[in-house]
Amino acid sequence: xxxxxxxxxxxxxxxxxxxxxxxxxxxxxxxxxxxxxxxxxxxxxxxxxxxxxxxxxxxxxxxxxxxxxxxxxxxxxxxxxxxxxxxxxxxxxxxxxxxxxxxxxxxxxxxxxxxxxxxxxxxxxxxxxxxxxxxxxxxxxxxxxxxxxxxxxxxxxxxxxxxxxxxxxxxxxxxxxxxxxxxxxxxxxxxxxxxxxxxxxxxxxxxxxxxxxxxxxxxxxxxxxxxxxxxxxxxxxxxxxxxxxxxxxxxxxxxxxxxxxxxxxxxxxxxxxxxxxxxxxxxxxxxxxxxxxxxxxxxxxxxxxxxxxxxxxxxxxxxxxxxxxxxxxxxxxxxxxxxxxxxxxxxxxxxxxxxxxxxxxxxxxxxxxxxxxxxxxxxxxxxxxxx
Amino acid sequence: xxxxxxxxxxxxxxxxxxxxxxxxxxxxxxxxxxxxxxxxxxxxxxxxxxxxxxxxxxxxxxxxxxxxxxxxxxxxxxxxxxxxxxxxxxxxxxxxxxxxxxxxxxxxxxxxxxxxxxxxxxxxxxxxxxxxxxxxxxxxxxxxxxxxxxxxxxxxxxxxxxxxxxxxxxxxxxxxxxxxxxxxxxxxxxxxxxxxxxxxxxxxxxxxxxxxxxxxxxxxxxxxxxxxxxxxxxxxxxxxxxxxxxxxxxxxxxxxxxxxxxxxxxxxxxxxxxxxxxxxxxxxxxxxxxxxxxxxxxxxxxxxxxxxxxxxxxxxxxxxxxxxxxxxxxxxxxxxxxxxxxxxxxxxxxxxxxxxxxxxxxxxxxxxxxxxxxxxxxxxxxxxxxxxxxxxxxxxxxxxxxxxxxxxxxxxxxxxxxxxxxxxxxxxxxxxxxxxxxxxxxxxxxxxxxxxxxxxxxxxxxxxxxxxxxxxxxxxxxxxxxxxxxxxxxxxxxxxxxxxxxxxxxxxxxxxxxxxxxxxxxxxxxxxxxxxxxxxxxxxxxxxxxxxxxxxxxxxxxxxxxxxxxxxxxxxxxxxxxxxxxxxxxxxxxxxxxxxxxxxxxxxxxxxxxxxxxxxxxxxxxxxxxxxxxxxxxxxxxxxxxxxxxxxxxxxxxxxxxxxxxxxxxxxxxxxxxxxxxxxxxxxxxxxxxxxxxxxxxxxxxxxxxxxxxxxxxxxxxxxxxxxxxxxxxxxxxxxxxxxxxxxxxxxxxxxxxxxxxxxxxxxxxxxxxxxxxxxxxxxxxxxxxxxxxxxxxxxx
Lengths: 387, 797
Hints:
Chain A is mainly β. Chain A contains three helices and 29 strands.
């Protein structure tokens, strides 16, 4: 069966920030934030019509500055947070803010036939995350599965836990913790674990990955020298609570069991330059997506360390005879860890890859030149996993 | 008389047993006499002394009337009744005692009668025997008279003969006969003389053997018979003595053989003798083995305890073993054969079983001794020792084919294999030692202005010393197959040893190990613990592996095949190309790793320099930043380093003005246009499209990609890694106008100095263009510096 061709969308500006609209579970929608120092920055709301293979977009202006990081609220489709650069007095400061998009854009793509520039709308600012005392914001994380009231931001060497009050118009710093140590420490990225009642986060600084308990704001584990060089990104396995993936400048993707951090469980070495992004598929955690500055996106199948090491579990009574036969065949050929596909549609460094929150078989990747590519998991593999 | 006594005692014991039955026990036998004795015994004495008491029921003057009256008057009814009962009981007891006595007496009487009757009969028989005796005695005296008469007769005849001899000169025939007779007569005397302890038993035997036939022939003549009897007894005595001697421990094998031989001549049973002979010889051989064993340290099954080096070398040991044990065993076998050949009950099986147990023990000892040869020692010594062992063994085997020929050959083969394995380990240790030296040489601080040993020298030293060592080892190992070594003609040493032990087990295994070890430097997770190998070492090993692939492996294999010609039908060997592929794989891995390590070092420097600088507030550039100079210096140093070991490589033809090409910066005079049909229509064209268009026409660059084995490729790899890092870092910053200009200057500087290192300067150019374009994007106020100024600054810097 022929796989659908990738769908490519070009932004006018450079871009690094990409997120699925987390709260949306029906429509395939991504948010992209642009980086331009001289023009007004934008947030593109990309709607993907799966049936017709068409992209619809809406553009929101984000006038305060270039967007370095974007994340959408898991509870409210209209709410998102950005980290953006603000230049003032010859200084560049990275700030973070929570925004609300206009109501009509939240869940509808009424494609405007006119030129997009005519009807650009503006984001409504809900609140700033005041970071004057803490330094540059690296990223904002929403509490996964939460009600959209709690966010954590990483600012230089601080972890800041915020409570959003009064329908997110007020952000109150509820607790914070600072990483102390030699030299100038700076968090590069972080992830909020969906396990343990959402009480754990993991952060990366330099070559170290650290785990934190959000209740006590204390460090709970630390993977020193997780990568030979800088750690760029992390992700938690959505189905196995102790499993964590990390990637970094040594071109490697490593998988860790946080209970035993002396050695990685697995290491992937497929990219030929820094790996900037690693993402577990939300439903089938054997599917790993990585984006790298070698301009490639790689989809890997890490069956051996997934929560479904023997394929999709089907209850016995659900099996008809035919299916049973099928099941046997599957047992005969155990799945191997492998690279499923390498996507080479990008021509510049890929800084962000994300799975769709609505369709587990679909993902988007964004390269610096503003090219957004939407791809699907190959059909053959999809059926292999499902059946 | 004896019979009578026996009969008496028989009855007595019979009576005893009867009475025992009657009374129940020995002590009961005496009891019934008590009252009777008292009744009969002392009556006379008592009658004289004691006043008669008619009321004493046991007394002699007992008067029943008085007693009764007395009792009746004195006692009450109860007492009376009890008295009556007592009396009744006593009366019954007395009655039974009396009966018993009567019976006994009767029995004794009867037995006495029997005895007397028997005695009468026996005396009658004895009389007849006495008569016989008397007649025999008479016969004896008669024969003794006859004997003495005969003797007298013979003596007389002897005397007559002597006299005759003395008086007459008889004819020669008679004289010879007479002499023979004379000597016959003298036989017992001689025998006695020679067979005496300490004399010459062999002569006695010889003499006896000569005389025996004659004597046997004429034994019907009493005089000859007497002589024969006498000699017989003498010889029996001798046999006794010889047997005693046989059991003596101090006998040497020759004496032992003689002794047994004499005994055999004396017609002792050969089976017994053969047993004795073997056990005696066995004890001797055991003692020799024990002496050998005493030299060995106590066997240590774990083999871990460090034993002191053996006192004597292996050759000495084998020498002693073979001169003492093996030759004695040979001697023994030979003499056994000659002694017991064809005799019943002493087949070869016995000897062979005996010999094979002993040789097995000897092999064990030798094996233990060989195990002590831990170090490499002198291989020629070992070979000579094994050779001697094998030769001696062959001599033994000719005598005793079943004494463990295979075990011996296997032992030699095992020792050879073990030695080869040891050589492999020694080679490995040697190589590691060399590597250690190289590392030290690389790490040693160099006095300024003076270069340490160059990499080519180090490589040459390493390579030649390893090869030399390998050759030396091969030469040593070749001793095992030398023509003058006896065991080299064994089929094992002709075929299997050459191929499996030497070619595969030593040469191929070493090359494989070398590749693996070298590869280990690249594969080991250097980032987590364990100090990483210095880059120069990686480079050196890469070159070494490459050299192995190119020439050394085939050279070594050819050499090996020459020295150890493989048989056509032999087991399959690892082909040279497979080894070469392994070496090449290792070399590739090492070189890639080298590029990564060096690239990462430069990249780290660039990253730090970009990250820590304030690009927004920087002043107008006056100079190339120091870090760029440093980068160029480092890359130049790497170039020199790589150039020492690797060829230049092919460079793509350059345009003449390449080094002078302007460092292009984003300019806004770009034609707008859409190039990708798949693009969703989007807002007005922006600037970065240019770079996209450029990329359309340039190939994708793999940053961390395998490199080729030449200097240019290695350098290109390192430069690619460095510049890509610079690009990514610049993209993360926001620059002011002067920041951009600084990047411009730096970029031009790099361009100026790096292009000549890269295989394709367009790669450098392309990456630097991207850096510039990105910097321009990241610039708040993108006003590029005049190109002439940039050039000026760079030239000045």
